[in-house]
Design goal:
This protein is mainly alpha-helical. The chain has eleven helices and no strands.
Length: about 190
């Protein structure tokens, strides 16, 4: 799951959303200095990642890419799944994706004192290029995968993976739909006990 899915799976609490959004940049247990709801978001993010990485449907999706992208397959599927969430947003929310993303960006602005340094650095780029909304289109996904590709230490070729997204679009979308129902149930349950 990438940014959009993690934010969506956080429910309605803005600080849990922020914690879930920025969790990848926070390592180990070094999050005690954040507000409690941000800590909950970080814990939720890690639980979702574990659930996702072990899930047979997610693994089935990554296998389709493994020959060409090796250990980057999971990162690519995270992006593909965010694409299908954005593309089919009206199936998951009564609020438009435009409004939802604008509210989240505003929440980042309103809570800057609680953001990690990494999040403060990427936030202007994210908002300027409207990453979350751009996930709706294949062109948007391709652009973001290309940007990610340039930041990788080793050659990942992620920018080329849109070819597989187009070739196996219905398979990936079907896998996403089934998986997302299960991860949504998992996240709701996890939130009850945080």
């Amino acid at each position: 799951m990438n940014f959009l899915a993690h934010i969506y799976l956080s429910g309605d609490n803005e600080l849990i959303k922020i914690g879930n959004f920025m969790a990848d940049g926070i390592h180990g247990k070094t999050f005690d200095n954040f507000p409690i709801d941000i800590q909950k978001g970080i814990i939720l993010h890690r639980a979702i990642d574990t659930f996702t990485d072990m899930h047979p449907i997610f693994r089935q999706s990554t296998k389709r890419l493994h020959a060409n992208y090796h250990h980057y397959s999971g990162v690519i599927i995270d992006m593909f799944y965010d694409h299908f969430l954005a593309k089919n947003w009206s199936n998951y929310s009564g609020e438009t994706l435009e409004n939802y993303t604008a509210r989240f960006y505003q929440s980042l602005h309103d809570n800057q004192e609680s953001l990690s340094e990494k999040t403060k650095r990427i936030m202007p780029h994210m908002i300027q290029h409207n990453w979350l909304l751009s996930y709706q289109t294949i062109e948007g996904i391709q652009k973001i995968l290309g940007q990610m590709d340039t930041r990788m230490k080793y050659e990942s070729n992620m920018r080329f993976s849109v070819a597989e997204l187009q070739t196996y679009n219905s398979e990936f979308e079907s896998e996403f739909t089934t998986f997302f129902e299960e991860v949504t149930t998992f996240a709701k349950q996890k939130l009850l006990f945080l």
